[in-house]
TrEMBL record:
It holds the Pfam family RESC6. GO terms for cellular component: mitochondrial matrix; ribonucleoprotein granule. This is RNA-editing substrate-binding complex 6 protein domain-containing protein. One of its GO terms (biological process) is regulation of mitochondrial mRNA stability. It comes from the Eukaryota. One of its GO terms (molecular function) is RNA binding. Residues 184-419 form the RNA-editing substrate-binding complex 6 protein domain.
Length: 504
């Protein structure tokens, strides 16, 4: 229970880099400075106070001043602040006081440095070491803050050993503190930070999912979108949590921003959490998405197209709207955008030939920057779309052959299927692809076996065709009987029967 004296100090903790106990040990002059710092509303006010009172500031004052500067600096002000001599003097002096800061003060200091994105001070290694040794002092808010800092420090450069150690320590403390997470903002912060760092911890996400589900009424749609995105990024789902997310989305769609709509649509599709029917996408999401159609970036449009296609929502009118919005933006597409758009919009080719012509030209421009997976999926999309451009298929397939050693067997099957759809199964392209697959038949699933058998049946007769056809058939027979959850579709059965006839 707080004493009256501690109660009066509670107000000083707003934006402070310490706790009540630390403030109680400060001298009255430093307490007065702390009060003035907590009342500062702009980075300029904080720096003016630093210029006047720097010599009288203790460690808590210095850490709080740095934190307030970072908090109140707008993105366009950051570069100016980082070169301000008052900021430089503040950072230089703070390094000598690190040993006087508790875990909260240390983490707030790290957050401020990351937020300002300035050159790391010479004492950054000491700060990281002290943060690692004090993680057990951190509250859930600071744990999320710390994970965010680690993500930012690892985003554009390989993390140092100290940063890796801090990530490990914070992750361990999150696991140990799961019972203490209750605030909605803390839950969202930790959840999204773990996902950004690629930390796939089923225990943590399961516990967080239960708490997030209980707090659903406290979230705005931005929070719900962030949670949904985090679970999709980590490839975890929680049935009750996503049931409530769908319910919230159904009644609160108009509260969604452009970005939250994209995140929610992508996440629900990625995890297969569509509720088992098209209604949510077709009658709830699609009308709201249409109302923002001119505001989406090219990445947003490609993500939306992919999401609807992946969820097997066949809304031709909606996809046509996406296609029209994409048309003037194709030159802004990166490889992933082209891949997503071609695959998602393949069924629209005949009504949007102009768009596919633009996608072809962008594919030529980006040819050598596609990843192996992107190459195979883009080729497959063009093939299914009915594109008949021999130069495109020849160039992209040659590029794929150069990257065969990086491809999975499924990628190669997709490329061969694309060539078959384009009626371009020429020996110069198919031979190296089939040779590569002949050494990986045991890695093919039943669907890929059917895919490959169909292609082999359509290539020119040769010794390779005969031997590979028999080998694929031998692989397929036991897999059709033993593969769990695989029931061949009508078209797959027809393809197999036709292939056997052609191979006779």
């Amino acid at each position: 229970m707080l004493t009256p004296e501690k109660g009066r100090l509670e107000s000083l903790l707003q934006g402070s880099s310490s706790n009540v106990e630390s403030l109680l040990t400060s001298n009255p002059e430093c307490l007065a400075l702390q009060h003035r710092l907590s009342k500062s509303k702009t980075s300029g006010q904080v720096l003016a106070l630093v210029a006047d009172e720097l010599e009288r500031m203790d460690g808590i004052n210095l850490a709080t001043a740095l934190h307030r500067v970072a908090k109140h600096s707008k993105s366009y002000q950051v570069s100016q602040v980082a070169t301000d001599p008052r900021y430089t003097a503040l950072v230089d002096r703070l390094g000598a006081y690190l040993n006087s800061l508790d875990g909260v003060g240390l983490m707030n200091t790290l957050w401020a440095l990351v937020r300002l994105n300035a050159a790391a001070p010479k004492w950054i290694s000491e700060l990281l070491d002290r943060c690692i040794s004090s993680v057990d002092q951190l509250e859930p808010k600071q744990l999320g803050q710390g994970l965010y800092c680690v993500y930012r420090m690892s985003k554009h450069a390989a993390p140092t050993e100290a940063v890796k150690a801090l990530q490990s320590a914070l992750h361990g403390q999150v696991r140990a503190s799961l019972d203490h997470f209750s605030d909605s903002h803390e839950l969202v912060s930790v959840c999204t930070s773990l996902a950004k760092l690629g930390i796939r911890d089923e225990t943590v996400f399961s516990a967080l999912g239960s708490r997030l589900s209980d707090k659903m009424d406290d979230f705005d749609m931005e929070d719900i979108a962030a949670v949904s995105w985090a679970f999709a990024r980590a490839k975890f789902t929680d049935r009750e949590l996503f049931r409530k997310i769908r319910e919230s989305l159904t009644v609160r769609t108009t509260e969604c921003s452009v970005k939250s709509l994209v995140s929610l649509t992508w996440s629900l599709s990625k995890l297969g959490e569509t509720g088992g029917e098209e209604d949510l996408f077709r009658y709830t999401l699609a009308p709201t998405i249409r109302s923002y159609m001119l505001e989406y970036t090219v990445q947003d449009l490609c993500a939306l197209a992919w999401s609807f296609a992946n969820a097997n929502v066949h809304d031709v009118d909606f996809m046509s709207d996406i296609a029209h919005a994409l048309m003037p933006k194709t030159r802004d597409m990166n490889c992933q955008d082209v891949c997503s758009a071609v695959v998602a919009l393949a069924s629209l080719h005949y009504s949007h030939k102009e768009l596919f012509e633009a996608l072809k030209q962008q594919s030529f421009r980006l040819m050598h920057t596609f990843t192996p997976l992107q190459l195979s999926r883009t080729l497959y999309g063009f093939g299914v779309a009915g594109v008949r451009d021999k130069k495109l298929f020849y160039e992209m397939t040659l590029t794929s052959i150069d990257k065969l050693h990086l491809m999975y067997a499924k990628n190669v099957c997709d490329i061969l299927s694309a060539l078959m759809e384009a009626e371009y199964l020429i020996p110069g392209l198919t031979r190296p692809l089939l040779d590569h697959l002949s050494r990986q038949l045991d890695r093919l699933g039943p669907t890929e076996c059917v895919q490959l058998l169909t292609v082999v049946a359509h290539v020119e007769p040769s010794e390779q065709r005969s031997s590979l056809g028999e080998a694929v058939a031998e692989q397929l027979r036991p897999k059709m009987k033993t593969t769990v959850r695989w029931i061949p579709s009508g078209p797959e059965i027809a393809d197999v029967l036709q292939s056997f006839v052609l191979l006779e």
